[in-house]
Amino acid sequence: MSKRKPLISGNWKMHHNHFEALQLVQKLSYQLTSDDYEAVDVSVHPPFTDLRTVQTFFISEKEPVPIALGAQHCHHEDQGAFTGEVSPAMLAKLDVRYVIAGHSERRELFGETDADVNRKVQSILRHGMTPILCCGETLEEREAGSTEAKVTGQVEAGLAGLTPEQVGGMVIAYEPIWAIGTGRTASSEDAQAVCQVVRTVVGRVAGAEAAESVRIQYGGSVKPTNAAELMAQPDIDGALVGGASLVADDFARIVRFHA
Ligand code: 13P
User: Fold this and answer.
1) What is the pTM of this model?
2) Do residues 96 and 52 lie in contact, with contact meaning Cβ atoms separated by under 8 Å?
3) Which residue's alpha carbon is nearest to atom 7 within ligand 1?
4) Closest listed residue to residue 251, CA positions, set 17, 18, 30
5) What is the pLDDT of residues 150-206, one digit of tens each?
6) How far is 96 from 44, CA to CA, in rounded Å?
7) For a pocket test of ligand 1, which of 138, 182, 240 has the largest count of ligand atoms closer than 8 A to its C-beta?
């Protein structure tokens, strides 16, 4: 039995204004119980414009809500002339705990390179937050048999220059691009096989202890109906959920995979 506590994260992408965000976290917080939070760490990653509202809601409840606040992206510099960007220092000030780095949509649609992603990871850590480093292959790469090479390269590059302690405390999300938003989930065996590769790579670059403690999420069409089977795999320690995290009932049911 793994000692790693699962982390279920909701990546809202570009959905929900701050009013809708508030409704969603209210509903979610009324559904989740202390048993859930004991078994599973939970984070939500709203758009930047919602962060302050969600943060305020979490801390202003009579019992502060133990859902961690997350962001979807950041720049690697602390400040400067970078129009439209948000810095890790700004996120840390809002009690953001987890920041996604190198999501495939950022890589594919906004041209983020492995080197950019590594700079973000370093900067997120420097500000005391936890990166969720994303990796994953396209359908063409899977069919060409290069899944392992792609994921290995992304993980090695993303972790470059980090200490074993830093790596051991982070989260890596394996998200096959062909499974994102398509309703096509990787089978639990396929997901496990790649997550095992990720853990082996971590062991090689940061040592056995880091490999044992790093949390590896699976992402790509995770739903209430498939979460438990995916989470039962030995190297899968949680999920990065897109579409299903926008509906409080569905996301709560995914968090409850343990029950
Ligand atoms: P879906 O759950 O909508 O497939 O999205 C997965 C994802 O990209 C989470 O980061």
Assistant:
1) 0.97
2) no
3) 242
4) 30
5) 999 999 999 999 999 999 999 999 999 999 989 888 899 999 999 999 999 999 999
6) 10
7) 240
